[in-house]
Write a structure and sequence with these properties.
single chain, 279 residues, alpha/beta, Rossmann fold, five-stranded parallel sheet, 13 helices
Length: 279
């Protein structure tokens, strides 16, 4: 098999050229992709397989058969192909488009919030003495913001963005550990591997993700969803970060309300202790 991940091979042409050799299951995948070209780049592998009514292993074999090393590589190439077909953004509209996308993502994230899950997340973090956040890249930035916000109300947590350090921390987890795993796709291999290790040690898992059906949500005890699924070309976009920070804000505000007297005292003392750092 030739890996075309970084080549100029066009995915739709690759599929057409191999169509004659597709099995019945592979034809299901092909037909789904061609009928949902704008949607498929936002699917997780789990969602794609369910939508096509095939096994995830079958879907992976399909993408390898047409020259890609996996679904993510295919999505990236397919997104590039779509972008080349329709360059819609121009200088006069991109500011409006970003605002529209951001407002829409926040509204949709609000609609996705499961208040019962949110309350359970707040209670679990509140009661736990060992809270650890796993995040990589922009998800790690959201984790650091969560840490900063919680320190301001007297709740200390650990954020680990290095994958090797995550392995070590997951290995030392216990049934008293709470892992908050942040991953937009819910399919980041390092996060899945490290959360799996912590799970075997008895840790409770909270997932902050954009995908209800993903490898991460299969491991999670509690799930908070946001709604900014990313085009593979635009990973780490501000719109996606904002939806992650929305979930962070919900958690922190909920904890602050739950422990209002203590949180207000800590915030007041922090303000007093930092006043002399301002001119």
């Amino acid at each position: 098999m030739v890996d075309h991940t970084h080549s100029s091979i066009i995915p739709s042409i690759q599929m057409e050229q191999n169509k004659h050799s597709f099995t019945k299951s592979e034809l299901k995948i092909f037909n789904y992709i061609m009928s949902n070209q704008e949607k498929v780049i936002y699917d997780s592998l789990t969602e794609l397989a369910e939508n096509c009514q095939v096994a995830e292993a079958t879907a992976l074999r399909f993408f390898r058969k047409i020259g890609f090393n996996g679904f993510q590589a295919f999505k990236l190439a397919f997104a590039h192909e779509q972008t080349q077909k329709s360059e819609q953004t121009n200088e006069s509209s991109f500011a409006d488009q970003i605002k529209t996308n951001m407002v829409k993502a926040l509204e949709q994230s609000y609609q996705l919030v499961d208040l019962d899950q949110l309350e359970q997340v707040i209670d679990l973090i509140d009661q736990a003495e060992d809270v650890v956040v796993f995040g990589i890249g922009s998800s790690g930035i959201a984790g650091l913001d969560l840490q900063n916000r919680l320190m301001r109300i007297g709740k200390n947590i650990t954020v680990i963005t290095d994958t090797h350090a995550q392995i070590m921390r997951a290995t030392s987890a216990t049934d008293k550990t709470v892992i908050i795993a942040i991953s937009l796709t819910g399919s980041t291999k390092e996060i899945i591997d490290n959360v799996s290790i912590a799970k075997t040690k008895g840790a409770r898992i909270i997932a902050l993700t954009n995908y209800a059906k993903s490898p991460l949500t299969k491991l999670a005890d509690l799930i908070l969803l946001s709604a900014a699924k990313e085009n593979p070309i635009d990973r780490g976009s501000l719109v996606s970060k904002v939806t992650q920070l929305y979930l962070v804000d919900l958690i922190c505000t909920g904890l602050s309300i739950k422990n209002s007297a203590y949180a207000n005292r800590i915030k007041r003392e922090i303000t007093e202790n930092t006043n002399n750092k301002l001119f």
